[in-house]
Amino acid sequence: MKIEDLSKVLDEIKIRFSSRFITYFIVYWLIFHWRISVALIWYDRSQIQAEGCRSIFEFIRKQLIVNNYHCEVFWYALGSTIAFPIIKTMILAFDAIIVVCRKNWISKINEDELFYKNIELEKNIDNINNVKLLDGQWIFSFSKFKDDKNNNIKTPQPIYIINGEWYSLNEEGIKTGPYFRIENFFLNEKKNQLSFTKNVIKPNGEITYFDKNKYNVLTLNNGNINFLRGTENGEEVDYEKIK
Length: 243
Hints:
The model has no long low-confidence stretch (mean pLDDT 76). A hairpin with a 4-residue loop joins β4 and β5. This protein is 47% helix and 30% strand. It has 2 domains: 3-94, no CATH class; 132-241, Lipocalin (Beta Barrel), CATH 2.40.128. It contains 6 helices and 8 strands. Strands 1-2-3-4-5-6-7-8 form an 8-stranded antiparallel barrel. The protein has helices at residues 3-17, 20-32, 34-42, 45-50, 56-66, 70-128, and strands at residues 136-146, 152-162, 165-169, 175-188, 193-200, 214-221, 224-232, 235-241. By secondary structure, the chain is an alpha+beta fold. Keywords: Membrane, Transmembrane, Transmembrane helix. The chain crosses the membrane at residues 21-43, 73-100.
């Protein structure tokens, strides 16, 4: 036999055995006839004789007669040939769905994270000039007198701030005013500082330019805007929010 002919025969065998059906048929045949497979690999002459056979060939012939599973092997091989590609396709499709869902989920998380970052940024931007952060009842302490040792004596005064307007509170807690309008409010959260200008309001509601420069520079207590300490036109002042 020429080398070319041998090569053709080997190629033909390779093509035959590359068929899924042939492969499955061989696998199932070995599984169903497992006794033959075990005997071919591990049995010696004494074990063959213990099975009542004189040779391995007689043992194989006996097993093929007693345990004939050719029909079962055929149908299992045919079913596997049809079913396995379908199962493989379903697995690949499921994997593709998981990949797409994972990408969408990650994208959704990134979008949500970006959304909340934008909300936080907008909130921080709003807080920079949001005078409503001062809304509420406060105890305003300012240095009006000095003691014998020339130390400042702070005088507490209950006040109420709403929408940037400054009211005083009498002993009954009734608002009077407004006396000042808070303008040029600026909050620097990074430095824990805020500043604003108190402008005097005339009885008719107009803002006067007289005594306009009540300029406050205050420091937040560990980032807490409910307690402020600083200066008003160079004099020490405290703000403590009650409610």
